[in-house]
Design goal:
The chain is 42% helix and 19% strand. By secondary structure, the protein is of the alpha/beta class. The chain starts with 6 loop residues before the first helix and ends in a 7-residue tail after the last helix. α1 (7-26) packs across α3 (44-56). The protein has a five-stranded mixed β-sheet with strand order 6-5-4-7-10. Strands 13-12-11-14-15 form a five-stranded mixed β-sheet, sandwiched between helices. A three-stranded antiparallel β-sheet has the order 1-3-2. The protein has eleven helices and 15 strands.
């Protein structure tokens, strides 16, 4: 005798069915019930029940039939990306960015404000508030209308949204970013390291979206990494996976000093990269020294993970034409197999796009668990 599903089992089954329908609608054009049933492998009756429930909850809408057809057209359904808004924030050393997007991650409005790494905690948080308020105002969205917020920051972050350690920003260790943002935008808020979120963006919509195992290198004045394993962002037990820069022997902390020696101690290196493009031997030698230091840590990650791709993002990705060749030479020297190296197309926007994806993951979790996304 087969046992009848319990109430909890039935509830979970409905959640799984709703998840299947939502994913099918988000991945394609509007679909009919028959098409949805084929995609989800549900019965037509179950598909119709789930779709009706999702319409009642505002996640799905029926598409108006095209004019001029013969006979009664089949009803088609689409995901309602306009049903809500999410907020993505990137708190960097030199720039704070905020994006308001719909539930498909399409940007409604963006705002950025220039800052400096030496800015104190109070001043940086005040600038963060102004940037977020400007983004909300530009999107014509009230704080209470945001369904979820994703935040990227330098340093190590714990599971509550507090910065455990930051040696790049003044007075930043110990800041409760999740708590601070919730005072301004009362939505579920998740906080993550910027390099990890840049990797998440590449896996979501970037050059790594079809790869399962990826080493992402955030190359700039500061070096960081993010790891994608089996298609998912790898955080590690204590959220410190990939933090090779903490190990002095790796050389990531001293690597930018080669570049600063050329630029007179400044963090502006475009003249250096241009000189290398123009064939200046001194500039080429400086970049070779920089990539030699960077390659030690990248090689360690490649030998550990054996990834399909190494993706270079961050501010230096715009000068990849002079960085990739010497980096590949060093990887060939140390690695048993050098992966394909690809360059991010996001430029400085990769981190904040990853923050948007983090916010959308929170919305999807609420959606698929049948919860109110605003709680």
């Amino acid at each position: 005798m087969t046992e009848e599903p319990s109430g909890g089992d039935l509830s979970r089954l409905r959640q799984l069915n709703a998840m299947a329908v939502m994913r099918a609608l988000r991945d394609d054009k509007p679909l009919t019930l028959t098409e949805l049933a084929k995609r989800t492998r549900l019965s037509r009756a179950s598909t119709e029940d789930v779709t009706r429930e999702l319409i009642d909850r505002g996640w799905v809408a029926e598409v108006e039939p095209a004019a001029g057809g013969v006979g009664r057209p089949a009803r088609r359904y689409r995901f309602r990306a306009d049903a809500g808004r999410v907020l993505g924030v990137d708190i960097g050393g030199h720039t704070i960015r905020a994006l308001v997007t719909d539930l498909d991650g399409e940007v409604v409005h963006s705002t950025s404000v220039q800052v400096t790494p030496e800015l104190g905690r109070r001043e940086r948080l005040a600038t963060l508030d102004k940037c977020v308020s400007a983004a909300l105002s530009g999107a014509k969205v009230a704080p209470a209308q945001i369904w979820s917020t994703g935040v990227a920051t330098t340093g190590l972050v714990d599971g509550t949204g507090r910065v455990m350690l930051s040696d790049s920003l003044t007075e930043w260790t110990g800041v409760d970013l999740a708590g601070h943002l919730r005072r301004l935008v009362p939505a579920p808020t998740r906080v993550e390291n910027d390099s990890k979120l840049a990797a998440l963006a590449e896996s979501w919509r970037g050059v790594a979206r079809y790869a399962k195992d990826v080493v992402f290198l955030l190359a700039g004045v500061r070096t960081g990494t993010g790891l994608i394993i089996d298609g998912k962002l790898h955080r590690g037990f204590g959220n410190a996976a990939g933090e090779l820069g903490a190990l002095p022997v790796i050389g990531w902390q001293k690597a930018p000093e080669h570049l600063r020696a050329w630029s007179g101690g400044q963090d502006e290196f475009e003249d250096l990269f241009q000189a290398a493009r123009d064939g200046d031997r001194g500039a080429v030698k400086v970049i070779r020294r920089y990539t030699r230091d960077i390659a030690i840590g990248v090689s360690a990650l490649v030998l550990t993970l054996d990834p399909e791709l190494v993706v270079i993002g961050g501010g230096f990705s715009r000068s990849a034409d002079v960085l990739v060749r010497p980096l590949r030479t060093e990887l060939d020297r140390w690695c048993l197999r050098t992966p394909e190296i690809r360059i991010s197309t996001f430029g400085d926007e990769g981190v904040v796009l990853g923050a948007v994806r983090l916010a959308l993951e929170q919305v999807e979790t609420s959606m698929f668990e049948g919860a109110d996304p605003l709680t």
